[in-house]
From TrEMBL:
Full protein name: Membrane protein involved in the export of O-antigen, teichoic acid lipoteichoic acid
Chief location category: membrane
GO cellular component: plasma membrane
Localization (cell): Cell membrane
PANTHER family, per the entry: PSMA PROTEIN, PST FAMILY PREDICTED COLANIC ACID TRANSPORTER
Species this protein is from: Sunxiuqinia dokdonensis
The keyword Membrane is annotated on this UniProt entry: yes
InterPro entries linked: Poly_Biosynth_Transport
Transmembrane segments: 12-36, 42-62, 83-107, 127-148, 155-178, 184-201, 237-262, 313-337, 379-399, 405-427, 439-460, 466-488
Membrane-related topology note: Multi-pass membrane protein
Alphabetized UniProt keyword annotations: Cell membrane, Membrane, Transmembrane, Transmembrane helix
Amino acid sequence: MQPAKRVAVNTGILYAKMGITVFISLYATRLILAALGAEDYGIFNVVGGAIAMLTFLNIAMASASQRFMSYAQGEGDEQKQKYIFNVSVSLHFLVAIAVFLLLQVAGYFLFNGILEIPEERMDVAKLLYQFMLVSTFFTIVSVPYDAVINAHENMLLVAILGIIESVSKLAIAIYITYTAFDKLLTFGILMVSLPILLLVLRSIYCHRKYEEVELAPRKYYNRRLFKEMTSFASWKLLSSTASIVAMQGITIILNSFFGVIVNAAQGVANQVSGQLMAFSNTMLKALNPVIVKSEGEKNRTQMLKASMTGNKISFFLLSFFAIPVLIEMSFILNFWLKDVPDFAIVFCRLSLINAGIDQLTVTFSTAIGATGRIKKVSFWNSMVYIALLPASYLAFKLGASPEAIYVNLIGMTVVLSILRVLFTYHLCGLELGQFTSDLLVPCLSTTLATAIIAYTPTFFLDAGLVRLVVVVILNVLTFLTLLFLIGLKDEEKKLITSVYQAVVTRLRNKN
């Protein structure tokens, strides 16, 4: 199957999964916030938020292992994949021990003077943290299995596990609504146990399905490969850790200046942006292995083409859904949640703008990683991430309001995007003029024009369901029209048309 059609099929599978999981997740969040209340939900976002933080670390580390797996598949070297898997297992076992010990030390300082948590809930918060550490260890150890699944582009398994996860979260949300036990502690324990169960299922499947998944670290040890993967993973881990420290750091800074209620608003913003970004992230999950395999095949032209197209489609997918949500954020949050935390509306809007900027260059990170030359870009990315913390602390010391944190985030994302473009230019041969004319101009002009037209109903209609429907209809009609007039190049239109025809033909043949 051609790369473009393979990406389309895998994306279709993941979208089918997402169609099931998005609404389940949003409804589960509504139940959880209602059951816990704003204060306990804020506490979980501060302490249990480290779970989400380490999930991000897990994804980043999996991408490092996946790079070597996908590259070896592009080379057609099956034996090398066994060495890569076993070296990856050994490497991540050592990382898991180091992270576990580091977080134990960090926990002492967090709960002794840094976190602002009500005294009566402190013991529960500490227990949550310990459960999270156990979950973290197993999550990191199981990273090589995620890498194998992604390298094989087995999106059907990803979809099935995603549905199991969402249904389980809904069951947890319903359970804590009616349980007589401490709701926050119960919620934390169950949420920490879920990823362990899912990772066990992944490992069992991989051992039965894939030949390269043969756990024999001594037999398949290769010193040169271990050194190469350690170097790559270390630099990848540096930038990922800096990102995690920055994201969790701003949560702690918000907590220390404004308390757990503002953290609840931050949690809602993370949920909204996370669900909307799922549309573009789903496509990227299917595309990233193709980018790395193209580099493994020494096809730099196809690799850059896939990266540029991935940026554009990722941005358009997010924008299509984000525009009406940005316009009608107040109505949507009040309809979705019983009690909307203070600052949630402005946090959600700024978070989506930040996400949109990030999507314009998001696949360039994969392209740079595919070359294996990530030392400099990882260093500079880390510096930018860490700079966010003193900038935000200083802003609040000078009297800035809570939304300043997202203004700083947007500034950080702009700088990171510029770095991605420059390094893709130097390492991969990206043409800057082509990037501007083929990506920036069509993406920004299509989105801004659509947003202006979709916003017009707010001048003559009161907020409500009718106005939301009108905004959505205007957004769909305007966006799709402008997308085909100025957003897509002729070859991209032909690609979409051919994929659509292939799907229709397959459906007709089945019927």
